[in-house]
Design a protein that fits this description.
Enzyme class: transferase
InterPro entries: ATPase_NBD, Type_III_PanK
Number of domains: 2
Mean pLDDT: 92
Cofactor: NH4(+); K(+)
CATH class of the largest domain: Alpha Beta
Protein name: Type III pantothenate kinase
Order of helices and strands: EEEHEHEEHEEEHHEHEH
Number of helices: 7
Keywords: ATP-binding, Coenzyme A biosynthesis, Cytoplasm, Kinase, Nucleotide-binding, Potassium, Transferase
CATH topology of the largest domain: Nucleotidyltransferase, domain 5
Number of strands: 11
Radius of gyration: 19 Å
CATH superfamily of the largest domain: ATPase, nucleotide binding domain
Low-confidence stretches: none
Strand content: 25-35%
Length: 247
């Protein structure tokens, strides 16, 4: 089965084509258009379409797709494969839920901690019995830099410095970098430490645009052997959901 899988996030839209579980192509856009969609449809014989969006309004290209296909709109009611114990499932972000499904699909019968690095940083957990209870949300990497500038009168906008490797800064720019990047590093390790206190066997699955950067932050930590980088985890979770839908 060939599936078109669409993940509309806060910043980027990611569109992928799968043949069963094989990822054939993935593209990401600030704002896709009909031409980009028709190009993919002309290249592959798409049988099913699933879409996940954090936005309420639909773009013209989405309406075009709905004219051609029965588009499955991902939500908690079609999240098969996991036992969702979230108290308010309708308010659970579809990207978080899809990532949990993706983790459980890729690493079944395992305790999986899922860390998403994007506009926000999300922490979620699905156990070996496919039980999901919830997680945590905090500001993302770029959001923290922007907030320091926006909410102060003197602090400048600073770009992410992937080569920064110091415990402190010796000027304003490096102090901001230290605060943001070391802060995230300590947050990551703190959440992971709290998680593993109750787990004997576990995976730490990183995904999202900042997953490689997070992997770098954690590469010298004691958690490194347990880290798995799955940048397309949400797309893979959506694909797993559409494969099981109406089976």
């Amino acid at each position: 089965m060939t599936s078109l899988v669409i993940d509309i996030g806060n910043t980027l839209t990611k569109i992928a084509v799968f043949s069963d579980n094989d990822l054939l192509q993935v593209q990401q856009y600030q704002q896709p258009g009909a031409d980009e969609i028709n190009s993919l449809l002309g290249k592959y014989r798409v049988e099913k379409v699933i879409s996940s969006s954090v936005k309420k309004e639909k773009e013209p290209w989405q309406l075009m797709l709905e004219d051609k296909f029965t588009v499955v709109h991902f939500n908690s009611s079609i999240a098969s494969g996991i036992n969702n114990h979230y108290k308010t499932p309708k308010t659970l972000g579809p990207d978080r839920l899809a990532a949990v499904i993706g983790a459980n699909h890729l690493y079944p019968q395992a305790n999986n901690m899922i860390i998403g690095g994007g506009t926000t940083i999300t922490y979620d957990y699905v156990d070996a019995g496919a039980n999901y209870f919830g997680g945590s949300i905090s500001p993302g990497l770029k959001m923290r830099y922007k907030a320091l500038n926006y909410y102060t009168g003197a602090l400048p906008i600073i770009e992410v410095d992937e080569d920064f490797n110091s415990a402190y800064g010796d000027d304003t720019a490096s102090a901001i970098t230290s605060g943001v990047q070391n802060g995230i590093k300590h947050e990551l390790t703190g959440f992971i430490e709290a998680y593993i206190k109750t787990q004997k066997a576990y995976n730490i699955i990183l995904h999202g645009g900042d997953s490689i950067f997070f992997d770098t932050l954690l590469k010298n930590s004691i958690f490194a052997p347990y880290i798995k980088n799955e940048p397309y985890l949400v797309l893979k979770g959506l694909n797993a959901a559409i494969q099981k839908h109406n089976d």
